[in-house]
Amino acid sequence: MKTGVGYRRELSAWLATKPRGVDCLEITAEHFFHGGVEHLAALAKKLPLFVHGLGLSLGTPGALDKKILEQFARVVSLAQPEWISDHIAFTRTAEVDLGHLNPIPPTREMLKIISDHVREVSDRCGKPMLLENITSHVQLAGDLRETDFLNGLCERAGCKLLLDVTNLFINSRNHGFDARQWLREIQPSNIVQLHIVGYSRHGSRYTDSHAAPIQDELIELAREVVRHAPVQAVILERDEDFPDVAGLEIEVAKLQRIRDGN
After folding, report:
1. CA within 20 to 30 Å of 1's CA: 63, 149, 203, 260, which one?
2. 95-129: per-residue pLDDT in tens?
3. What is the pLDDT of residues 41-70, one digit of tens each?
């Protein structure tokens, strides 16, 4: 199982030292839509890459945005990742770009919409695709349970899951369900990659700002995922409040603890 980080320019100097425990990188496709081609090519020569998208808006009914799909495919062509990914969400309607990830209802109609879009993206890019669970302030009802919806997506779309352990933990606390029971309902072979980062808490509300160290309960939940499923990679996400080198090494060591079961 590989351990790595989500690439951010703030981490460039540290990554140039070839830190122990970082044997892959995940890049955000949109960060390279308007430049950085040479830098992306250099990254691809150093470490295995995964390409992660934010704005394909797989849950929006109708045709995918062709311009965004072509930009995404161009990044994939340059990075030559082992796989590509985006979210089980929508970021825009037919009229407006909402600018953030929004939840979709677990319905059979939505199952078809996302499955068709996943197949289109995967075919265009020539890469297998993973889908990531998001956090949500509301829990939308549908005619399927969430876990049945996710298993159905994998079967119908021919894709797998990027399980965000932090998002699962946060949703379980905010919406009042058992994260471990949820995990047991997911077909193990569907889980390929993990995301993890520390959560924030404001009173009884849990949030994910991608800005906190990984807490012990997240490590325990991630270990359970690794025992449950043939996980191939775990990625540390961090977008704000970057720690110093010593702090980064501590966070990467946590990934290795997850991998090794220590």
Report:
1. 149
2. 788 888 999 999 999 999 999 999 999 999 999 99
3. 999 999 999 999 999 999 999 999 999 999
Other Cβ atoms less than 10 A from the Cβ of 123: the count is: 10
Q: How many domains does the chain have?
A: 1
Return the SS3 of 3.
Answer: strand
In this structure, the strands spanning 2-6 and 25-28 are parallel
Residue 191 · residue 197 · CB < 8 Å: no
Q: Could you tell me the CATH number of the domain that includes residue 193?
A: 3.20.20.150
Amino acid at 237: E
Angle, helices 216-228/245-260, rounded to nearest 10 degrees: 40
Secondary structure (H, E, C), 181-197: HHHHCCCHHHEEEEEEC
CA distance 185 to 151: 9
Instruction: Write out the residue range of the structural domain in which residue 51 sits.
Output: 2-260
